[in-house]
Amino acid sequence: MNRITATFLKQKSLLNIFITAGYPALDSLPTLASQLFEHGVDILEVGMPYSDPLADGPVIQETSSLALQNGITLQRIFEQVKLIRQTEKDAPIFLMGYLNQLLQFGPEAFCKACAEAEVDGLIIPDLPYEIYQEKYQSLLKTYGLAISFLVTPRTNDLRIKALDQACNSFLYIVSDNSITGGSKDQFSSSQLAYFKRINSMKLKNPTMIGFGISSKKMLKQAGNYANGAIIGTAYLESVKRGEQSNFIKELTQQNL
Asked: How many domains does the structure of the chain reveal?
């Protein structure tokens, strides 16, 4: 059984934390990841900084810009993930980035490097599942890499089912049509209705709700409609304040 399957078999609402590699310092990732796992985070999503992050809000864009200024590279990220794997053997690690990054590195070289670093899966927001199936599915399978696709409120049921069939990890349920981040501390009634609609479809893959989750209340609500939640912006803001340990401790205590 692989790490992703084993993790989603846990009878609880899971917590996936997004962290920008290379932020706040070039080699911060292994230390921050260790801290996250110590506090009970279930899945680590490592953002690969990119100069044109289409899906990211101001906070993640800022952290990506600073990480690039710090000198972060894909090769450095792979080296840091290898360090994380020296101590964390069970938690899934996903890399989140953009198709151009994969193309610039070389698709097969990228997948091989992921496998060598024991990365479990990829989240590539600008990779349509049709192109994935045509050009990359067999390559990812060769190197044992899973894929996660994003679903938004505008995604119709037919396409959701197609994404579910193409996916082999979890479906990333985008809480609204905007970029990541946001300042609300609870979901709207329309968002909850959207989550309920997805949940009622009885998809084959687990689901995780992300984008704009910033409070304990939202984390708990997400767990009522999905297998867990993804938190990025709020966590990175806590890193900026130097309060990430307390932030995660509060979330994981609430999530038990």
From this structure: 1
